[in-house]
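Researcher: We're teaching a course module on how sequence relates to structure. For the next exercise, students receive a sequence and then see the predicted structure as tokens, so they can try to spot secondary structure elements on their own. Here is the exercise chain.
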Amino acid sequence: MAEQAGYHPCTCIALDVQAYGGNNDRRQSEIQHDLPRLLSRAALNSGLDRSRWHIQAKGDEQLAVAPMDGSEPRIVDDYIRHITSGLLGYNQDRVSNARMRIRAAVHHGPVEVADNGFAGRTVVTTSRLLNSGPLRGALTAAPAADLVLVLSDEVYRSTVGGGHTTLPTTAFRRVAVQEKEYEAAAWLWVPGHDAHQLDLDEPGHRTGAAEEPYRTAAGTTPHGRADRSETAPTDSQPVGAQGPHVNGRDVSVNTFNAPVDLRGGVVGFGGPRG
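Model: And here is the predicted structure for the students to work with:
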């Protein structure tokens, strides 16, 4: 990638090998030898020109910054698929503790090639996504998976959600990422696994607020479930039961489980007279 001064719109692809620090010296050297070659083959097989990318390597990690030249859907789709395929072949005959398993994150925005690496909030956000609790939790919850991917909401909506990849929206799970100062929605994909079925709770990481399913314009989730606003019956009110009665009359009962501001409102107490 040619040197350019200032900030330019880029796609950031960050990857990290699981449990690298727990390996001995020889295994760490092997990973550092094999990882860039696996990624280069994946890019070549995807028709991507990595010579136009700025790549920052750090042992078990790699951060690639690619120009936004229309290749982002191919990065999200083909490149990730070929990395997953390469890992499958690499890990096929290895014992579990010798497998290479990868977390990956993709985000886009303005980036500057600075004096000591990359500058810009886009790079920081990519790092937060890569180290987020839901992504780590997914790799733990799916021990057979070789790769887990998280897309920022912006990347997801402009590629997968926009129909510019072969990936179905149903394969992605919306998660809430809360990592240091960063808090936003993101989208999780675990190739070969149902991300919606994974328990993402990981000790030491917050998974954020309750997850909300992605809904189509018709108001359904990717699994076809309609967005319902009805309140489910409680144990004390079985299906089909009527409301409470006072003096033979139906009454309405409101239960407040939190402080309520009633300033300007009118509230009545007691039963009907007559």
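Model: If you want an answer key for the exercise: The helical segments are 25-45, 72-91, 121-130, 133-141, 153-158. Residues 247 and 272 are 9 Å apart (CA to CA).
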